[in-house]
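Pipeline run #58 for the internal structure catalog. This entry was flagged by the ingest filter as a single-chain record with no existing model, so it goes straight to prediction. Upstream metadata was stripped on purpose; only the residue string is passed forward. Reviewer on rotation: M.T. Logging verbosity set to normal.
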Amino acid sequence: MKGKGNDGSGDNKERDGWETSKELFNKLDKQYKFKFDCCATKDNTKCENFSNDFKEIKGTNLNSWMNPPFSNAKEMFEHFFNAIICGVAIYRCDNMETKIWQEIILKKADWIFIPKGRVSYTPFNITIRNGMTRFPSALIGIGVEPPKEIEGIILSVIKEDLKWPQKQWTSKWRLGNEMHNNIAQY
């Protein structure tokens, strides 16, 4: 996709400075009360405690937030799942066939939440699509409950150590403040 801001690898350095919008972060922070921003600078941190060299953090029990730099997202997610006990991350989910999704996120996340509509990032200086990204985003959680105050779909992650066939499969989604369940018996 030359000329479209993406070379196909998803690691576009021009997007490293994109920050989570204040509106979305505040909704999440109300529920999670984040204490640590994994990938931030003093100019863009969302939390009092932050790291601008997350790979050097050995571990933390602080409730953590991560919006990784696109150019280094795979390495950041590998470290996120090793160093963080409880937290939420955000990442693009336009292609879940990629190694980052297949080998890291889908294997290690407790849940994945796809917000309804597109997430906006700041500073995102684009005049088309009402300033929204061209790709959808997902919230990825470990050690915490899925978001409660945001509309979207929760994907429950089945860990590899479970044996198939399962007797029951459950999907959940939230419409407004109502939680809906689908349960299929096998």
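catalog note: The first strand starts at residue 19 and ends at 20.
catalog note: Residues 13-185 form one domain.
status: ready for reviewer M.T.
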